[in-house]
Design brief:
The complex is a heterodimer. Chain A is an all-alpha fold. Chain A has two domains: 191 residues, no CATH class; 159 residues, no CATH class. Chain A has 17 helices and one strand. By secondary structure, chain B is an alpha/beta fold. Chain B contains 14 helices and 20 strands. In chain B, strands 1-13-12-11-14-10 form a six-stranded mixed beta sheet. Chain B has a six-stranded mixed beta sheet with strand order 2-16-15-19-17-18, with no helix packed on it. A four-stranded antiparallel beta sheet of chain B has the order 3-9-8-5, with no helix packed on it. In chain B, strand 8 and strand 9 form a beta hairpin. Classes of the chains: A mainly alpha, B alpha/beta. Chains A and B meet through strand 1, helix 3, helix 13 and helix 17 of A and helix 1, strand 20, helix 13 and helix 14 of B.
Chain lengths: 416, 540
């Protein structure tokens, strides 16, 4: 094959330039499955490898990416009272979304993969594929206006402290993507919480504030749209009166389900045309991704089912107490708000940081569901609980496994 | 279970209370239905408690020999699991769900033909724990009969390792550091047997039987678990296990082995029954399909256990786990069907008949078939004029735990299968992303091509070795109450206490071979388990 000969010809010397060789090796094995054969153990191996596993998760997220990108633009124009129909101003919303999303996506991958390549070269390992998923997840859980330098810092923190310090892919204790988010959450809370950050393109969400357009909007895309004869970005776009940008959760905390539905309809919340982190708003598309992961058996259905059980049980308990309006919100309503489904499908199921025994996965899932909902409903400081609940249970997952294994050991001993 | 019920019903109660306290708005129908559900759950919990008490009582008096046969409430599985096949009437029945059948192209087809093999080889390294340089009792040029001793271990001189054929010793191959690799015999056309006087098994005591077996060379046919070694003559095993079916990829049909050897088979079982303090357990095939051979189903003096399920249901280790698991430092013996027949024939005739029906399998054979030969037949002669193409790997055994060999090599001591498959040493453009050529996989991301599709597998690793990422994968193909992934971690971390506690001594390489096959991170699970077993063995 000509292509493979070309690839072989440009292979850098491993000793002279280890970093280049590592990078080359990563791209080469990306293009070609290696020609290694089995030796010593089984003579045939399953067709599945880590690359394919990771890329399946990335593919499962693609619908969220498409929708999330468009929704950045949609929310921007809704705040201005323009193009209120979802498909109206399609090209403007898509262009606006891409201008916001692409830099986040590129920065996440360049920084994360850069660190990964550096450590792989240093350790003399092949580049491990773990960051493919992390890098795809991080943009989805960020607000659209996240400053890129903060994003860079958070990825440095998450990948170096959270992963490489523990020995790389497969050794980390906490979910890397959530670690980068929690870093921002505690270090730069104003960029990732409150009502102001979920709608993009305005300095602040007060009535009359003009849209914050730059060269890409006013020159690049406007010229393009002008040439195509389409509507252009209007620099006079401004926030309309009465728009607050509050998310359903913030509204729910203030006044329960009634307050939520006074602003957003149920179908808006289910389809995801609401403000929020980039990828977590559309419940339907997340469920599609989750089903794909369950169907291919890439993610553990036990963890997902456990989280649902935990959420439903705890919401019943809270309903029974019912002392604040938010406590009276039922579990179906809880499913429609916030990022529970996204956390369930993509975050809690990370096999490295979750419990590793079947029974442990149930316990792990149920506890995340329960603790996350309690944080969501009871704690005014944290409007959403899944990030903290998952990180907490990541910490305790080995303990859960320990007790499951102990019971297995006891059973074996009792036989003797 | 009961605790869960209780907490569930509590949850329901709180729900009802809240519904009632919120007053008229609650629909009464909902409340009544919830009360109904609660009542059912309460009754279920009570029955569960009673059932558990009954089980504890039954356990105390040793009534529940097969576990979970006693109780008030039928398990969900009793409703859903298909009933045992009609021929599986006698003995216990085990329906195993976990595992995976790797369907490969090239299974052997009957009938059995005679193989024209002239050279046979016995390799001392096939016996674990043998000193590297055993005492060889023959020289190049020695004329020997079948059953004449070839060598013995200097640490255990009483155990004789004998020749499967008569003829002339033509070569004593040396391996690394002058260890003995193979003793090669050029076989006569008609086998001449060394004759021994057979003791009457019902009058002789155990020691006499053991000494006879040691002297005639059938002792090394016995495999002792844990550790897979030839047992010490003084060991009395707790139980002896024989699996009468093989579920490994393209494995031979064991019914072929016993056809024409029914008498010897039964005799072998009767002899084995005298050697153990427990029982001889027979694992039988209940996967549906045709009933096993009469010799298996009608065997007497043994405990029968039926197993249904995908590979590794036919592995003796899995069967031991479900029938009489190894406790503490117990020793059990395992044998294959043809080895039992060899022992039986010895006691019938006084001669060492090491006849083996061998399955020649693999998509790269022109004609996959069964052949009749003897222990240690030369691989090249077995598959002569039968292979297609080049760049092939020859395996003595199955693709999961067989040993790689060459045309100049010989059938392993316990092997009854030769597999030929293509080496997969080629690059594949975007092979991980677009697996165009069909390949077997348990993953839902790779097309399965239907249940009966037979794959043409090659030896490519389909990916590089990585740190363990996926969990629950090993467990899904090991139908035992063992956590193999944690066990592997304990072995790698050299945590002796933990690896023993997690059940390492119930396992051997072939049991975890599927775990190695499915491993997304391509870890050498079999080698790790063997390393753990070696460590345990050193310590004990």
């Amino acid at each position: 094959m000509a292509l493979i000969d070309f690839f072989k010809k440009i292979e850098p010397d491993k000793k002279k330039s280890p970093f280049l060789h590592t990078a080359y090796d990563a791209f080469f094995t990306f293009a070609f499955s290696p020609n290694t054969v089995t030796s010593g153990g089984t003579h045939i191996k399953d067709g599945m490898d880590l690359k394919r596993l990771m890329v399946t998760v990335v593919i499962a997220m693609q619908l969220c990416y498409l929708f999330g990108t468009y929704n950045i633009g949609h929310q921007h124009f809704v705040a201005a009272g323009q193009y209120l129909g979802f498909l109206e101003g399609f090209h403007l919303k898509l262009a606006f979304g891409l201008i916001k999303l692409l830099p986040i996506f590129v920065v996440a991958h360049v920084v994360g993969l850069g660190i990964e390549f550096y450590f792989a070269a240093k350790k003399g390992h092949a580049v491990e594929e773990g960051f493919l998923v992390t890098g795809a997840l991080i943009p989805l859980i960020m607000p659209p206006d996240i400053p890129l330098w903060i994003l860079t810092l958070s990825i440095f923190f998450a990948v170096i402290i959270g992963k490489e310090a523990f020995g790389g892919t497969g050794m980390n204790i906490w979910n890397i993507a959530l670690l980068s988010r929690v870093f921002i959450f505690f270090a730069y809370p104003l960029t990732i919480s409150g009502d102001q950050v979920w709608v993009s393109g305005y300095k602040k969400l007060a009535a009359g504030t003009a849209a914050d357009y730059n060269w890409w909007h006013t020159t690049f895309f406007n010229k393009l749209f002008d040439w195509m004869g389409l509507a252009k970005f209007d620099p006079a776009t401004h926030v309309v009166d009465g728009f607050t940008g509050a998310t359903p959760l913030a509204l729910g905390y203030e006044g329960g389900w009634e307050k939520v539905t006074s602003v957003y309809s149920e179908s808006q919340m289910i389809w995801g045309t609401i403000p929020g982190s980039i990828g977590e708003t559309s419940k339907v598309l997340i469920v599609v991704g989750a089903l794909m992961l369950i169907f291919t058996r890439v993610a553990s259905w036990r963890i997902m089912a456990g989280m649902l059980v935990g959420l439903i049980g705890t919401s019943w308990l809270l309903n029974a107490i019912g002392s604040t309006p938010f406590m009276q919100v039922t579990w179906t309503q809880h499913l429609m708000m916030g990022s529970f489904l996204f956390a369930m499908a993509f975050m809690a199921t990370d096999p490295v940081t979750a419990a590793t025994t079947d029974r442990g996965k149930w316990i792990y899932g149920i506890l995340i569901g329960a603790i996350g909902l309690i944080i969501r409903v009871m704690n005014p400081a944290y409007p959403e609980g899944w990030m903290l609940a998952i990180l907490l249970l990541n910490t305790f997952a080995p303990t859960i496994d320990y007790f499951v294994l102990e019971s297995n050991i006891k059973k074996r001993l009792s036989r003797a | 279970m009961n605790k869960l019920n209780l907490s569930l019903s509590l949850m329901f109660f709180t729900h009802i209370l809240s519904a009632q306290s919120s007053g008229a708005s609650a629909s009464s129908l909902l409340v009544y239905s919830l009360i109904g559900v609660c009542a059912i759950l309460l009754v279920w919990a009570l029955f569960g408690l009673a059932s558990n008490l009954l089980k504890i009582e039954a356990d105390k008096y040793g009534l529940d020999s097969e576990k979970n046969n006693i109780g008030i409430i039928p398990g969900l599985r009793d409703f859903f699991s298909p009933s045992r096949p009609s021929y599986a009437s006698e003995g216990s029945f085990h329906n195993l769900r976990k595992g995976y059948d790797i369907k490969l192209e090239g299974s052997a087809k009957g009938p059995v033909s005679d193989a024209a093999v002239t050279r046979f080889g016995i390799n001392p390294k096939d016996f674990r724990g043998m000193t590297p340089i055993p005492k060889v009792e023959v020289e190049v040029g020695t004329e020997i009969k079948a059953g004449d001793p070839l060598f013995f271990d200097k640490k255990r001189p009483e155990i004789q390792y004998v020749s499967p054929v008569s003829g002339e010793v033509v070569e004593v191959r040396r391996g690394e550091k002058r260890s003995i690799a193979e003793i090669v015999i050029l076989a006569d056309k008609d086998t001449k047997y060394r004759k021994s006087n057979v003791p009457d098994i019902y009058k002789a005591d155990r020691a006499e039987l053991v000494n006879f077996m040691l002297a005639t060379g059938v002792w090394p046919l016995i495999n002792e678990r844990p550790f897979d070694v030839v047992p010490q003559p003084s060991t009395v095993p707790v139980n002896i296990f024989v699996s009468t079916f093989d579920t490994a990829p393209m494995a031979p049909d064991n019914n072929m082995f016993v056809a024409g050897n029914e008498e010897a088979w039964q005799k072998g079982l009767s002899v084995l029954a005298l050697l153990t303090s427990g029982k001889v357990h027979l694992g039988l095939d209940a996967r549906g399909g045709a009933a096993p051979a009469k010799a298996f189903t009608d065997a007497y003096g043994v405990e029968k256990h039926w197993f249904k399920g995908p590979h590794p249901a036919g592995n003796v280790g899995v069967q031991i786990h479900h029938t009489a698991p190894i406790k503490g430092h117990d020793k059990v013996w395992t044998l294959n069907v043809q080895e039992v027949i060899t022992i039986g024939k010895l006691f019938l005739t006084g001669e060492y008949h090491a006849d083996r029906v061998v399955a020649l399998t693999g998509a790269d054979l022109a004609n996959p078939m069964y052949v009749r030969t003897k222990q240690g037949a030369n691989i090249g002669e077995l598959i002569k004029n039968n292979t297609k193409g080049e760049n092939l790997r020859l395996v003595s055994g199955d693709v999961l735990s067989g040993k790689q060999t060459t045309a100049d090599g010989f059938l392993g001591f316990r092997d009854d299968q030769v597999t030929v498959l293509k080496e997969g040493n080629n690059y594949e453009l975007f092979g991980w992303l677009l697996p165009l050529a069909p390949r077997p996989s348990v993953s839902g991301t790779i097309p399965s091509y239907g249940k009966d599709f037979a794959f043409e597998a090659n030896t490519n690793t389909h990916g590089e070795k990585r740190a363990l990422v996926v969990s629950g994968q090993y467990e899904s193909v090991l139908p035992m109450d063992i956590y193999p992934q944690h066990l592997v971690k304990a072995i790698v971390g050299n945590n002796l206490e933990k690896m023993e506690a997690l059940g390492l001594n119930e396992l051997t390489e072939e049991d975890v071979a599927l775990c190695e096959f499915v491993c997304t991170s391509k870890n050498p699970v079999q080698a790790i388990v063997r390393q753990g077993l070696d460590t345990l063995q050193e310590q004990s």
